[in-house]
Write a structure and sequence with these properties.
With about 350 residues, this protein is an alpha/beta fold. The protein has two domains: about 35-160 and about 250-290, Bacterial extracellular solute-binding protein, family 7 (D-Maltodextrin-Binding Protein, domain 2); about 165-245 and about 305-355, 3-Layer(aba) Sandwich (D-Maltodextrin-Binding Protein, domain 2). The chain is about 50% helix and about 15% strand. Helix 7 (about 185-195) links the parallel strand 6 (about 180-185) and strand 7. The longest helix is centred in the last third of the chain and has 35 residues, at about 265-300.
Length: about 350
């Protein structure tokens, strides 16, 4: 019996070792068994309870679904992980994995993306805006590269709705902007407001409500969904808007390039599929959003005046825009685009063509 045990013991060890090697070989051969779930941190400057956060939630839902839970996303709202003006660098340095980048905050780092605010004629539908950006990126890869230079990849883009002025005094036409202290988020709009006779003021978005309360500013000029989301009508009960007061700006969700490269090709493809699904779901919501925001003002009995065709015409042709577009052409050339003026002309053409579809 003792001799039998001495024979069987090495045989048993050999069987166990062989099984272990086979299992490890299986893991390496199919790849999936070796994959581990990953949790990505997404930072947005929007609060959780506003319409502007729909995109964040859709990305989380569709990516987690498409990857069968292998990629999970934790959303950090209200600048809790990175300030709005710090997100671009936070993604670059992997302080966050995914960032909600507002190009208006980065005129120095993203001069082309922030500079296209100069295009005041804006197609109304989400699909039209996506088409314009796709055409511009396809013809001018330097345009897309401007963001990718910061060690990140573009995941998905969305766009703000039409402009609205919430003010502490009644504004009945664009002429009434004159002399008012008005806050805007971008260098382009601050210069345009000054050209209209307003006193442009730069105030962090999170401080706007208090600034309206204290009289630091008389009004805030930004997209209408920000108005309802932040309830600016409480300190500033007068609103002035029009669906034709378009706001051209690609809010861009980016992912750290190192984080992206560590994902398997299969997971990357699943995420690409997920972002396409996000656009399918988001588009109809965006197209209905302006009417919904106007209805919100009506629901709460707030004063909402519609800009006239003359007001829209004045806004779309503020004299300073000619200078701003020349500056954009120069920046395009600095970015490696041989003919900067052609970039400006093409972008306007892409807008016009999209509005015919």
């Amino acid at each position: 019996m003792k001799q039998l045990r001495m024979v069987l013991l090495p045989l048993l060890v050999l069987i166990l070792v062989s099984g272990f090697v086979f299992a490890e070989g299986q893991k390496e051969s199919d790849g999936k068994a070796a994959a581990k779930p990953v949790t990505l941190r997404l930072s947005t400057h929007h609060p959780a309870d506003v319409s502007r956060s729909v995109g964040s939630r859709l990305l989380k839902e569709e990516i987690e679904k498409a990857t069968n839970g292998m990629v999970k996303i934790d959303i950090y709202y209200s600048e809790s992980l990175a300030k709005g003006r710090e997100v671009l660098d936070a993604v670059k340095q992997r302080v966050v994995d995914i960032g909600d980048v507002n190009p208006a905050y980065y005129p120095g780092q993203l001069p082309l993306h922030s500079g296209i605010l100069a295009f005041t004629k804006v197609p109304p539908r989400y699909s039209q805006k996506v088409e314009v950006m796709a055409n511009a990126y396809a013809k001018y890869p330097q345009f897309r590269q401007e963001i990718e230079n910061y060690n990140q990849k573009i995941l998905w883009q969305y766009f703000p709705g039409s402009l609205n002025l919430s003010s502490t005094t009644l504004v009945e036409s664009i002429d009434d902007f004159k002399g008012l202290k008005i806050r805007a988020s971008s260098e382009v709009y601050l210069r345009m407001l000054k050209d209209l006779g307003a006193i442009p003021v730069s105030v962090p978005f999170t401080d706007v409500y208090m600034a309206l309360q204290t009289g630091t500013i008389d009004g805030v000029f930004t997209n209408i969904e920000a108005m309802t989301g932040q309830k600016f009508w409480e300190p500033a009960p007068y609103s002035f808007t029009s669906e034709d007061l378009g706001l051209w700006l690609p809010f861009t969700f980016t992912i750290n390039k190192d984080t992206w490269d560590k994902l398997s090709p299969e997971i990357q493809q699943q995420i690409e599929t997920a972002t396409a699904r996000v656009s399918e779901r988001y588009g109809p919501m965006f197209d209905q959003a302006y009417a919904d925001e106007v209805a919100t003002f009506t629901k709460y009995g707030k004063s909402l005046l519609m800009a006239s065709a003359r007001d829209v015409e004045i806004w779309q042709n503020v004299p300073i825009l000619e200078t701003i577009k020349k500056e954009l052409a120069a920046r395009a050339k600095e970015a490696g685009i041989a003919n900067g003026q052609q970039f400006v002309d093409d972008f306007e053409r892409f807008i016009d063509e999209s509005m015919q579809n």
